[in-house]
Amino acid sequence: MRIGLLVAVIAGFWLVAYADLERARDRAIQDGLRQTANLSTLLEEDARRVMVVAGYTLRGMTESGQIPAYLLGEAPDAPGMDSGPGLALRTLLIVEPDGRVRQSTGLDAPASVAGTPLAQAAAGRSASFIGPYQEPGGGWRAAIVRPLADGSGVAMGLLDLDRFARLYATQNIGPRSIILFYGEDGLVLAHSRFSAPLDQNRAVFADILPRLPAGEAARTLSGFDPTEGRERIGTVRRVGGLPFYVYVRLRTDDVLAGWYNDRWKRVVETAAVSVVVLLLAWLALRQLGRLETTTQALRASERRSQALFDSSFQIMGLLSPDGRVLALNRPACALAGLPAEALVGHRAWEFRGWARTDELAAAFRQSIEKAASGRFVRYETDVVADGLTRVMDVTIKPVYDDGGVVTVLVVEARDITERVEAAERLATALDQAEAANRAKSAFLATMSHELRTPLNAIIGFSDIMLHELFGPLGSPRYRDYARHVQNSGRHLLDLINDVLDMSKLEAGRYTLDESWMEPAEAIETCRALTAVPADVGGVTLAVECPPDLPNLLADERALRQVLLNLLSNAVKFTPRGGRVTVSAVREGDGRIAITVRDTGIGIAADALARILEPFQQADSSISGRFGGTGLGLSICRDLMALHGGSLSIDSEPGHGTAATIRFPADRTGRPVAADGLPA
User: Fold this and answer.
1) For 226, how many CA atoms within 13 A lie in the half-sphere containing its CB?
2) pLDDT band at residue 443, thresholds of 50, 70 and 90?
3) Record's Gene3D superfamilies (predicted)?
């Protein structure tokens, strides 16, 4: 019985293999037919395009009696003539009736066609197709002849038939297959592979080459080929409405070359499968004896897996998609307060140890239903364990079978109470830090206001003393002391103003007083205010602004504060003999850019990253040598940010610094002409 069944199985393998081979052979033949149809369509389109474009070219020549100027050159370059491997229309000629060439262009234009197959066509002055004929050099040619409209001669277009042969030879159709291009008279114009009979006589197959009746564009052929004594398939296609045909003929042996290889491969494979089946039958008998041993090992493995499941500190469980408990580890049972036997088979949300309120039970049920739909679920909840409320991080992951259906839900819960408490402490600390920062800003603003009143008095009284409004001071030293008091007071007032501005910016209480202004006037005002310290320091101060710079919507006081800060920094850090230049341009995207460039000491690369932050300077020695709090650039940056603009600084030690402020395009108006009127 078993032997008979085994023989039937092996016989079935061989029958299936035979049926598959027959189907594969039919598919190969059908693929070959499709190949001939598709390839003949492409080659017919190629030949049609060449003939049609050549006809259009000759029509233009017959009407004008000369070759168009755009075609004069080494070779005609009409569209479609250079398709495939080389030019198809090789030469254009205007020929007199006596054979003399009046005008020519192309690759091999003769001076006369007398003594060639073209002479009779020139003398007859009638439309005709000449060819194929072989030139003395061995190349095959054909000519399309059209009489000139004035009857003084003919226009000729010489076709390179070898070009078609080269194109056909590139097609991968097999060594014994062939592509033919021939006329209605059966003369072969070009073919794809070497054929001694065709090379000696282009009309050798004129009687057997297929032609199509009028109205039929293509025909698929199959059957026995008497010229070669073998089966063949092919497609013959008429070239448009012209008396020419493209014939793609494939030998059945070429079409089935791959199938022949697959046939022996399939025979070997079927034999191998038969041997494997015999071996498997023998192994199956041995495997039955080992099945009991494997079953015992599987049970032992299940016990080990359960031990690992129970030893985890995390709460773990397996649920069915409808929420029934399938398996639990010991921590999960301890949290529920019941043994595993009392929990398995029941809905997970029914036990108060896991969901101590109706709201938590409903949320647990919704999470299980969401996971059963195929989504990964993660949420936080609180449970009571040992009288303490603990925060648990719960995840529910769906497990799919091979069909993509959720079969099991894996539930894990981790105690994250300490992490939550740490996050709450951190949030409290951040709130306290922000409150301290706000208190600092409020304190600075209040103290700045309180300090400005006595400082204004000190500056005012020292100015009265310097000008001796109420009488002489006496000793000249008093004037020096009064000047020092006034300079120190002004310096201290500038620092307090910077601190006040910074505190307003940080607190978000700085309000822009915007209006349309001319940036060139603001630049000139700031230059004038900086001219005195520049002259004292021996620094040249220059302004470069175009006359048609557009108006700018900005807070004029804030813009002047930014420019004065940048100019004072540039003058301060430029040695005697240096130069500071202020330039303004309108960039391509419509933004206005104002750049303050100096030839000063420059800024190191590591300092550029922090120089725009409050109380930061390029190095610690600058405040001692040049003074300042390090707030100026930070205030400039924030003022530009209020305008929607930016501040950027490019610098290299020893080569100077360029500070650029940019205002967005929506803050620019129409350009201003030199007379102050809108351009």
Assistant:
1) 4
2) low
3) 1.10.287.130, Histidine kinase-like ATPase, C-terminal domain, PAS domain
